[in-house]
Amino acid sequence: MKPEHIEPFFATLAAANPEPRTELEFSSVFELLAAVLLSAQATDEGVNKATRRLFVLAPNPARMLALGDERVTELVRTIGLYRTKARNLLATCRILQEQHGGRVPRDRAALEALPGVGRKTANVVLNVAFGEPTMAVDTHVYRVSNRTGLAPGRTVQQVEERLLKRVPARWGEHAHHWLILHGRYVCTARAPRCDTCAVRSWCDEGRRGKAVRRHKAR
Question: Fewest C-beta in 10 Å: which of 125, 140, 171, 174?
C-alpha cells in the first residue's frame, strides 16, 4: 500500500463505522481485562456467553477470588483452554488486590506482568480502557495488514511496529478495531469478499486483482 493510499483507506473505514468497538461485553476496566484474558484462541461470542454469568457473580477481583478456583473453572469451561485461563484469571486477581489496590494498572509493564496477559492483551486494555493509540495485532489485523500492504510483516511484532509507524495519528485510537472488523467480516481468511470490499482500491492484492493469499500470524 502506497503512503498516499493510507489516508483514504482509513477514511473509508471510518465513514462506515465512526466509533468501532470491541465485540467483547464488559462494564468496567476489570471486566474488559478478564474478557480479553479469556478470549485467547476463542471467539468473542463464546467468551460473552461465559462472562455474562461470571461477571454477575464476580464483577471485581475480590469477588472473583471469593468464588474460588473450582467455581470460576466451572463458569468458563465452555471456553477453550479454560482450566489454564481460570488459573491465570485468579492469579491476576490476586496480584491486582495485593499490588494495585484492586484496580487495573494503566502501565504496560504492570499489565504484562499479570498471569495470562501478553502484549496483545495489554494493548487492548490500554486502547479500549484508556484511549491509547496501541495496535493489538490478532489474526485478523495480521492478515489484513499483510494482504493490503498496509503493514506487511513476517511476525506479529513486525506488523505492530509497522502499523505504529504508518497509521496516521488521527486514526490511531480506532485503527486496530477497524482492521479487526474488516478482517472478521470482509477480508476473511478462506473466502474474502473482495467484490464488495469498500477499500479494495487501496489494497495491494485487491487492486492487482490477484487471488488473495492466506496469511497466518506467527
Answer: 171
In whole angstroms, what is the distance from residue 68 CA to residue 64 CA? 7
User: pLDDT per residue over 41-52, tens digit each?
Assistant: 899 999 999 999
Active-site entry in 49, 69, 85, 138: 138
Q: Is 49 annotated in the active site?
A: no
- Catalytic residue (choose from 120, 165, 195, 204): 120
* pLDDT value, residue 207: 79
- ∠ CA 27-126-62, nearest 5°, is 50
Q: Is 138 a catalytic residue?
A: yes
Whether the model pTM is above 0.85: yes
Containing domain of residue 43, as a range?
A: 29-128
In the listed set 128, 149, 166, which residue is the last one of a domain according to the structure? 128
* Confidence at residue 208, expressed as pLDDT on a 0 to 100 scale: 78
30 within 8 A of 63, measured Cβ to Cβ: no
